[in-house]
Structure prediction request, 618 residues.
Amino acid sequence: MLKAPDHQVAGHQAREGQLGPLVDDSGRFYKPLQNNGRGSKELAFYRSFFSDPRVPHHIRRFFPRFFGTLVVEASDGSGPQSHLVMEDLVSGLDRPSVADIKIGSRTWYPHAKEDYIAKCSKKDRETTSLTLGFRVSGLQIYDEDNEAATGGFWKQSKKQVQGFTAEDVRGTLRRFASSNPSAATAATADGEEPDCAFAAVVYGGSGGILAQLLELKAWFEEQTIFHFYSASVLLLRGNGATEAARVKLVDFAHVFEGDGVIDHNFLGGLCSLIRFISEVLCGGSDGRPHPEKSSAAENGGQGVTLSGV
Amino acid sequence: MLKAPDHQVAGHQAREGQLGPLVDDSGRFYKPLQNNGRGSKELAFYRSFFSDPRVPHHIRRFFPRFFGTLVVEASDGSGPQSHLVMEDLVSGLDRPSVADIKIGSRTWYPHAKEDYIAKCSKKDRETTSLTLGFRVSGLQIYDEDNEAATGGFWKQSKKQVQGFTAEDVRGTLRRFASSNPSAATAATADGEEPDCAFAAVVYGGSGGILAQLLELKAWFEEQTIFHFYSASVLLLRGNGATEAARVKLVDFAHVFEGDGVIDHNFLGGLCSLIRFISEVLCGGSDGRPHPEKSSAAENGGQGVTLSGV
Prediction:
């Protein structure tokens, strides 16, 4: 029996007669093949990716497993339609927290049509994509202290996440890695230290989110096979510190051949996200304070003003 | 006595009554303060950069030393004008080869005026900036075998370098690190192995260009102080393998405060340049073949086609 996913945070949603993805109870995720060519592009990507001998095995685990296509009843009641069948990434996670982060300061690809470029550029400039190199495009964080008020999940609407500032992004990344999300946000607002011990479990350590992102980064510094436009990094974790946090890449409707060039747009954004997460990990990724931060502090917190700039 | 520089490869040139930079015979370079606000921006950058305690000492050597401003007779005959006085980067190099490489897939900054953004975007799309994350914006390579025909220097006009393809960029980087530039280009065209031993001296080794670029990259992964738009990496080397090759950053008329965010646009382009140079260094930066390259070879050189993309 297929149903709409409980924990989808971005993209078209299967509700009120809308076309959207479905899940089954065996851990599979059914994404309708979009008609505008994006579906066939994403299908082509999945087919080539897992059979490409140039993709190292340790990198494949960052991508949802792919099981082919299947014709099933579409969620909008329009009848049978072809769906991509892949791994349901939140399956098996207890009360999952999910952040969908679209990577790249530019979501459009060279040689796209002008109206598509204009549409994407506008959104990149209106969101944090241009300035931070990424934007939050979906979010739900489990918060047991607010079970009554929020049903346990702190969610933000598409409109809300699109309006995020750099400070909102920092708050979100702290909240995502907090044992007490409401308090984390309040503490941040008060200038208090965030929940370092818990953040260290979620982001830090050899299997934490930061280590996974650094592994991806090392691949992006070398690989010239694929360029990923408008793709997202998903950060996933279950409730409690014992469940391992996961990093996954999703949304491959705009993947192009790299032609011997690295994906500098994705890599730049990924490095920026890594830098933001290192900050939440109090003391930085290597456990030492950031040199520039401590110097600024020694300097009375005084920054340098580029007068005339 | 001030005169026009012999080895300037990009930017306005002091000739035929034009305003341009000058050099003296003691190794100083005089850059006229531009009236349109760029001059004062560049001056503000130099003033803040060298006194900023957050900039590590080993990073300062990548920037031209700065000696202040001085009013000298402008090259265009317009009379006394204020000039930035800095280190002449080619001073002391015997028959210098110079490549001026503008870093970043985007040369415009957020909050720039629309007409400036449009002008820069157009150029970024017409050159390799958009696709490679950088573009060659000036070039001279010493070539003793062609002393008679070219006066010893292989130069390309502004128009020529703006028309460079990815393959031209590869050829240029090979030629820059070749003991025999003309042959290097011919060999490349024939699909022959380039001049690996010499390239290893120029690009490789602990003091080579690649090591210097990697040091810069490590800083850009951390630093959130400055964002460099439309700045260039200069690759410099004297004639012969014994003179150490140098990497310098220049052109700071569009430097902005980082506000706690890394310069992902510059970093992405820098990583792309590093990847290109690693390729010229036969066998890759670490002396091992690139994994994806060798796998592709084992696979009969067969790439993957993203059909439908």
User: Anything to note?
Assistant: Residues 284-305 of chain B have pLDDT under 50 and may be disordered. Chain B touches chain A through 56 residues (CB under 8 Å). The longest strand of chain B covers residues 134-142.
